Amino acid sequence: MAARSDAPPRPRTPVPVVLVHGSRTSATMWRRQLEALGRAGVPAVATDLPGHGARRGEPFTLDGAVDAVHDAVEGLGGRALVAGLSLGGYVAIEHRARHPEQSAGLVAASCCTESSSSLRPAWLSLARWIEGWPDHGARLNNAVVRLALDAEGAGDLGAGGYALTAMAEVLRELGPTDTLGALAAARSPVWFVNGRYDHFRAQERAFVAAARAGGAAARLVVVPHARHLVSLDAPVAFTRALLEAETVVTSEEAAVGVSPVHR
């Protein structure tokens, strides 16, 4: 009979988190989530994508964006929960498909519409038109942000500057991607987190089904009263969902014996 041990259970090593921002904004949009993760003892980083934040002036490419996420995960040990909103969600989905060995899990927020949507040509035309204005749409952007968010959220969203001429490049790069196919290409667990009034949640069921078709556990979280910028519009509810996802993947990684050196 094995001797009984009265030693307390060993603490689990938290799975790190990489946060990926939406189009035209930057890593600063995640300041409240980074603070919450820090308080919880979870290593985390928010990364700027090409053409955004500290990398404005670089062309945006999907390959470059996936590489940015890959490098951020490597910097945290090589395996992480990756969470992205809108553009960041599409990039995070593609990263998981291309680098499944790095993915402990995925939180894909505000991106439950295929990037190859039939509306994309209209969005692209509108983006090109606005980017051609003398101020590239700065006044319009600022007015929309003031209407949509409280002062703290607006400050976080704009602190890294706005990539006002990046949207057309983003739409061109995402257009040919197969988002549903990418979701089915890996097995790490997925959380889809959407605001109740988000116009990008039209294909939620198809996205959940695609992830499950690839063998992944997939969950859908709909945040009441929130809109597209759910992490800024309802930061407490979104952060709760993010922390719950991190707790689940940490437990699952510990259960299968993933070594901390791979994190």
* Overall shape: globular
User: Strand order, biggest sheet?
Assistant: 2-1-3-4-5-6
SSE class: alpha/beta
Cα-atom radius of gyration: 19 Å
In terms of per-residue confidence, which ranges show pLDDT below 50 for 5 or more consecutive residues?
Answer: 1-11, 259-263
Distance between the termini: 35 Å
- Taken in chain order, the helices and strands follow as EHEHEHEHHHHHEHEHH
What does this entry look like structurally?
- By secondary structure, the protein is an alpha/beta fold.
- It is built from 11 helices and 6 strands.
- The chain is globular and about 55 Å long.
- The N terminus and C terminus are likely disordered.
List the helices and strands and how they pair.
Elements (H helix, E strand, L loop, with lengths): L16 E4 L10 H9 L4 E4 L14 H14 L4 E6 L1 H12 L4 E7 L10 H12 L6 H11 L2 H8 L8 H8 L4 H5 L6 E6 L8 H10 L4 E6 L6 H4 L1 H22 L7
Parallel strand pairs: 1-2, 1-3, 3-4, 4-5, 5-6
Helix pairs in contact: 1-11, 2-3, 4-7
